[in-house]
Amino acid sequence: MKSLIAFIVIFIIAVISGMWILSEEKRELPIINPVDVNPDLVDPSLQNKGNYHTISDFYLQNQDGIWVDKSILNDKIAVVNYFFATCPGICPLMNGKLAKVYGQFKNSGDVLFLSHTVMPETDTAEALKEYAESYGADSKSWMFLTGDKSHLYELARKSYLVAPDKDDPNYSHGSENDFIHTENVVLIDTKGQIRGMYDGTSDKDMKQLAEDINLLLDQ
After folding, report:
1. What value does the mean pLDDT take over residues 205-211?
2. Start and end of every Thioredoxin domain (predicted)?
């Protein structure tokens, strides 16, 4: 009788384990298009786009003074955010939490973190170099990017979908009519598609980001 009960218990455990493994194998990240995002964060020209959204090309300067374009993402997963070096609030909180995720993947060779400044007028390559070093960031796996402000902002609004339109009356854009300040973090796959969006100030979201990166790495 005891052996029968033991067999039944083992059988149930095996079935449950098999179902859990199968569910994990079936889990896939969504492909996020503009129509799936809060319309407040999507440029009006893209709000009805429901398929085939990918990030556009870019030309920006990293903390080493090297100008880079989209080719740096060939066959790589990207984690994207926006910040400015003198920010006293959410930026150090966000980048501090991102640094922990970065630590898990910095040696993988398959994941690249891209942090874009929203204040290129002060965040020069030299300033970003010092800032990057404070987070232990190696430009081979975590780039801090500067460049033309309009280009940086267009990427935020039309590629990464993390910032409101500059003419939206419901948002304060700071001096000179435009200023981005966002805790949004975006996960990009090797095809340039958005696969996840996260709150960079949330421990829960950053844990989920790490899990989702691993999921993409295993595909």
Report:
1. 97
2. 32-218
